[in-house]
Design brief:
The chain has 169 residues and is α/β, with parallel strands linked by helices. It has helices spanning 16-27, 29-32, 41-54, 104-107, 110-120, 140-154, and strands at 4-8, 58-59, 69-75, 81-87, 89-91, 96-100, 126-131, 163-168.
């Protein structure tokens, strides 16, 4: 049981505030390991919620409207919020959003939707996507990392993010 992680771009050293996120996952591996447990994404997020809150993240409390974390995307007339996307956790100071995924992370390409949404969110510099190391005989973390390696290696698509942290739990 261990946490896997990869920071992108690979040419940059991981920022301290993202290393703290890895530490949270490492401290909770006994509770969330995809090798030992079949948690859904909400259950995995709940296991790390208090630690993320201690790092000044606003964390989703429920799927109800008032429990979601809304990150602005578009502003309309008179500066009124016109469009937002939900995040599992958000830190305004470090400009970081966190998405914790489970079963559909790779099979439904949810991690790519997370990437798109983070790219268009207002004032976001970093994205953390946590997926299972293994899901139904699929090595989800490895598959996600392979996509990001291709994205950065091809150098054809320029992302507006300073960095992406991929975590396998």
């Amino acid at each position: 049981m261990n946490i896997n992680w990869q920071y992108f771009p690979k040419s940059d050293l991981i920022p301290l505030h993202l290393k703290q996120i890895i530490d949270v996952f490492e401290q909770k591996i006994q509770l969330i390991s995809s090798t030992n447990y079949d948690l859904n994404s909400d259950e995995a997020l709940q296991a790390i919620k208090s630690d993320l809150t201690a790092l000044n993240y606003k964390v989703e409390t429920s799927k109800k409207k008032d429990g979601k974390i809304k990150v602005p995307v578009l502003f309309g007339r008179n500066g009124k919020l016109e469009k937002s996307f939900d995040a599992d956790a958000h830190n305004e100071v470090t400009k970081t959003v966190i998405e914790v995924e489970a079963g559909r992370a790779v099979s439904n390409y949810q991690f790519l939707k997370d990437l798109f949404q983070a790219c268009v969110m207002h004032d976001i510099d970093y994205l953390v996507i946590a997926v299972r190391n293994n899901y139904r005989e699929s090595k989800d973390f490895e598959k996600m990392v392979s996509f990001f390696e291709t994205l950065y290696a091809s150098n054809r698509l320029k992302l507006p993010l300073k960095g992406i942290l991929a975590i396998g739990y």
